[in-house]
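To: structure subgroup
Subject: Chain for Friday's discussion

All,

I'm putting the inputs and outputs inline so they're searchable in the archive.
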Amino acid sequence: MKPDTKIYVAGHTGMVGSAVVRRLQTLGFENIVTRRSAELDLTNQAAVNAFFADQKPGAVIMAAAKVGGIHANNTYPAEFIYDNLAIASNTIHAAYESGTQRFLFLGSSCIYPTLVPQPMKESCLLTSELEPTNEAYAIAKIAGLKLCEYYRKQYGVTYHSLMPTNLYGPGDNYHPDNSHLLPALIRRFHEAKEQKLDTVTIWGTGTPLRELMFADDLADAVVHVLRLEDPPNLINAGTGVDHTIREIAEMVKATVGFEGAIETDPGKPDGTPRKLMDVSLLEEQGWASKIPLKQGIEMTYKLFLEELEKGNLRER
């Protein structure tokens, strides 16, 4: 992919999309096309077709999606499957129709079944049942990666997928109920510190293992994969290291400076017992993660405080 390639980054205002734009700009890419959701509704097929027909991007990075944590996935499954299916089918087909030769679809580690050998290899896909708490989102993402695979097979276009592990970092969603694990913990511990509370309660038993990756680390992987001449159809992206939710909470507690105790709530769902990505294929392609979790949490909390002070903390 050349620096003058016209690249459409879908979802550029989100955590992942904004990180990708920053990385592209750092590397000298100037022909970057973006649209806010208010300007282009990716669930609207006619609008998406018109956009691609007009812009004709040479490459697409699909970082747009309807996302959320366990609570959001459980509460709004119809929205999660419909919106994400529509986004995938509309953009992939419109890209092909407009002559786009390169399309990178970003998914999630939740595409893999609940009980598979750890760490999870790409070959684990569709081998058993999905985790019920995020099945709707996972099915939509699986459909998107399969669309890329089959368009590549039938039409010869280089449409492929990168499946990141759990992400965090600049521009994350800090909604009190619908955020992911790390931003939820950062907000909870920060507010507990401010309110001088004695305890912070975390969902579930605290024993499930989670792998977390800094968004700018992923953005570097995205650009690397786009530069591969003949990439695999599906590649995992992660750090290759996981921690229990309790351990992650302890890291956040130390970073924030909360001096109280951590309690668990076993009545709340744990989700998948373990979600560790096998990143050997990505490493074979010449890329490895560079930002360890402790450093990433410290960077993220600093940004959280800056956004909070400016009054622009993202909550949706």
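Points worth raising on Friday:
The first helix runs from residue 15 to 26.
DSSP finds ten helices and 13 strands in the chain.

D.
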